[in-house]
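Section: Multi-chain targets

For targets with more than one molecule, the full set of components is provided together so that the structure can be written out for the assembly as a whole rather than chain by chain. Components appear in the order listed by the source. The example entry contains two components.
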Amino acid sequence: MGLIDDDLKQIKNIYWQTFSIGKKARAQLKNQKPVVLWFTGLSASGKTTIANLLEEYLHARDRHTFLLDGDNIRHGLNKDLSFTDPDRVENIRRIAEISKLMVEAGLIVIASFISPFYTDRRMARGLMEEGEFIEIYINASIELCASRDPKGLYKKAQNGQIKNFTGIDSGYDIPKRPEIIIDSSNTEAIDAANQILLYLESNNYLDVLDDQI
Amino acid sequence: MGLIDDDLKQIKNIYWQTFSIGKKARAQLKNQKPVVLWFTGLSASGKTTIANLLEEYLHARDRHTFLLDGDNIRHGLNKDLSFTDPDRVENIRRIAEISKLMVEAGLIVIASFISPFYTDRRMARGLMEEGEFIEIYINASIELCASRDPKGLYKKAQNGQIKNFTGIDSGYDIPKRPEIIIDSSNTEAIDAANQILLYLESNNYLDVLDDQI
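Its structure, encoded as tokens over all components, is:
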């Protein structure tokens, strides 16, 4: 414990003036520019598969990420919310606020939600600073998604067993100017993840210099 | 971009089998055991001062932290909540759920909230796994806190201008078995932060070995 005591003495001298540890300090520690990668698209369009693969790639490069999706949000923070329109809006609002906190914490946040409404996605973007929100539209036709139907949800929606299902009896606003578009009908998940990784590389989100944060 | 392409080819081979990046993988990347340091105590007891100082110490050691407090929660995620009893419960529930997500993300989370009710703190602890919740009781008498009164809140509460103020017309349940107690009436903030840092060191939250995560 001797080393600790010496360290502490030194820290006492250096850090007597209080200051807050902020986004820039954390990002420098991690050599990455914090950002939200916001995946939007129909159910079964391939969002989660691509998002998971991208997270693995980034982790293999020692980058610090976190994936927010229905599994860890709907069963925890947002378990009090239903799928009515006002609750969907509140659902996305809270996800956007958590994303903002995690960007503040220095992370690369991967948010994977249908997020069908333009106004909600604009609200989420509006919470972040310039360059901190990358909208990734996973484009696949409703016919293709309904034919994949891995969880049998489209079938239930078509039979009226599920209400307010995006693409069946609830709308999806196609993103107008997303930073990245992936046509998942003719792109393998691995190529889609690579496409996003290259976007991050070429736009200096990884291996940042001090003055780029 | 040549290096990137080579890297990607290698990653393609290694990571073809999908797997999720979890708490353990992130913690190994950061050489720390993710944990919530939950500060509880009266208004003006010194929670935020000590929490800020502790975060600086941990950051100076390249540890990855995030501080949750009223400033970044009440103005964002929880801006729809008031100070009525049900809203206070919901306030702490959401903070606990965010803390859980951030622990999942591998962080050392510093949560600094009055959190006056035993049941709420027990709920927060119950969300985490064994050893992931460290309750830190910042103990200062109501008389001392009211005499400090840096924001003039006690005076307003005593005049009836603020309702439901902890220690005046709303209760505070003293923690029964907190992991750490700090008597802020006779402890400097810098010594309090050091006491917590030594607790983390001696309980292996920092410099962890693979089999301790």
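Chain B touches chain A through 51 residues (CB under 8 Å).
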